[in-house]
UniProtKB/TrEMBL annotation:
It comes from the Bacteria. Residues 161-180 are annotated as: Disordered. It holds the Pfam family Phage_int_SAM_1. This is Core-binding (CB) domain-containing protein. Belongs to the 'phage' integrase family. Keywords: DNA recombination, DNA-binding. Transmembrane segments: none annotated. Residues 68-154 form the Core-binding (CB) domain. The keyword tRNA processing does not apply. It comes from Ruminococcus bicirculans. InterPro entries: CB, DNA_brk_join_enz, Integrase-like_cat_sf, Integrase_SAM-like_N.
Length: 363
């Protein structure tokens, strides 16, 4: 006996046959997504080396496989595509699935659609969301979540491109009086919202009068070390530590300060920009410092057991949409890779300059 059945529904004035399953669609999709959790594992460890990938492609072509068959085969062996590495991504995807299931429930008057039936309406759902004026970031997140759970690829669907250097609403419009301290700590340290909320006094180590290290657990469970330079940063953190100790609080911020709706990611971007221009100025004042910063970058890559693949002597130039967007808001279109990589390693912990420049320096 088949676990699916066909029922008739009137959709947009037409009689449509719909495949119905025993379990609710939301139950099936969430179970499937839950099986993809891979928290605490680093994505790059699951990636296949380019040399191995090329060898496999050549081997398959020699055996007479078509390009479509080879592409499908590669998708199956690149297992990191079908894994979720952070709890925040998992929770975001769950919300997308619930909205998608709610949309289909209203459309078909049932919660029991099969995956095969629901998959037909991914493009329609994205189009409806786009018509509501949602941002390219939101639409890409929606599509990524749906493609992940249905085993599809985003390039199979029409969706607006997402650019790094794009204009956003005023990030200061949500600033609150309660969040004044939180914003100040955010601009000083460059930590994410969750990292700020969990920042303890003992996580802050003063190296000397102008250097402080902050140890935190970042996205994906990564153990990060943020390196802050300057007398001002040291003085501010000592002031906030003193305040916490007086109130007997182990955490640098109070619970109320940690939960403010303010634009804390914008504060992270401000810290990145301040550090970038400080490093740039330092190298301009003393050209010998450039070699020192390059050595620090190499040492950090070695400490984290990663390979430095970028040519630090080559400037990073914005092109296309990103170039026009940067010019429209008065931002530079050429960036120093040494200063950008320093920010990426010691403030943002991304290990690449493109993300640092497009999402933090061009704001």
């Amino acid at each position: 006996m088949s676990k699916f059945k066909i029922v008739n529904r009137i959709i947009d004035g037409k009689n449509v046959e719909v495949e119905i399953g025993h379990n609710t669609l939301q139950y099936v999709l969430i179970n499937r997504l839950t099986g993809m959790r891979f928290f605490g594992t680093k994505k790059h460890k699951l990636k296949i080396k380019n040399s191995i990938k090329k060898a496999r492609i050549k081997n398959l072509k020699d055996k007479g496989f078509s390009d479509e068959e080879i592409e499908k085969f590669l998708d199956e062996i690149v297992i990191y595509k079908w894994r979720i590495f952070t709890e925040s991504s998992f929770n975001r995807y769950i919300k997308v699935i619930k909205r998608f299931c709610k949309y289909l429930k209203e459309k078909f008057q049932t919660s029991h659609l099969t995956m095969f039936e629901a998959e037909k309406y991914i493009q329609e759902y994205i189009d409806v969301r786009e018509a509501r004026g949602l941002s390219a970031d939101t639409l890409n997140t929606d599509l990524s979540a749906l493609c992940k759970v249905f085993g599809r690829r985003t390039i199979e669907f029409r969706h607006p491109p997402r650019h790094g250097a794009h204009l956003k609403n005023d990030p200061t419009k949500y600033n609150t009086e309660t969040g004044e301290t939180t914003r100040d700590v955010g601009v000083t340290t460059g930590l994410r919202r969750r990292e700020l909320a969990h920042l303890k006094v003992d996580d802050i180590k003063f190296i000397d009068s102008e250097t402080v290290h902050i140890f935190s657990i970042g996205k994906g469970g990564k153990h990060n070390r943020t390196v802050l330079k300057g007398i001002v940063a040291v003085a501010k953190l000592k002031e906030y530590i003193s305040r916490a100790e007086k109130t007997g609080n182990d955490f640098l911020l109070t619970k109320a300060e940690a939960r403010v709706p303010d634009g804390l990611h914008y504060c992270r971007a401000m810290c990145a920009q301040n550090t970038y221009y400080a490093v740039l100025q330092d190298m301009e004042n003393d050209p010998a410092k450039r070699a020192e910063y390059i050595q620090k970058i190499k040492d950090e890559f070695k400490r984290c057991k990663r390979k430095l693949k970028e040519n630090l002597d080559k400037p990073y130039r914005l092109r296309g949409y990103n170039r026009e967007a940067a010019l429209s808001i008065g931002k530079p279109i050429v960036y120093d890779r040494v200063a950008a990589m320093y920010v990426s390693l010691f403030i943002l912990h991304h290990f690449r300059t493109n993300t640092t420049i497009l999402h933090y320096l061009v704001k």
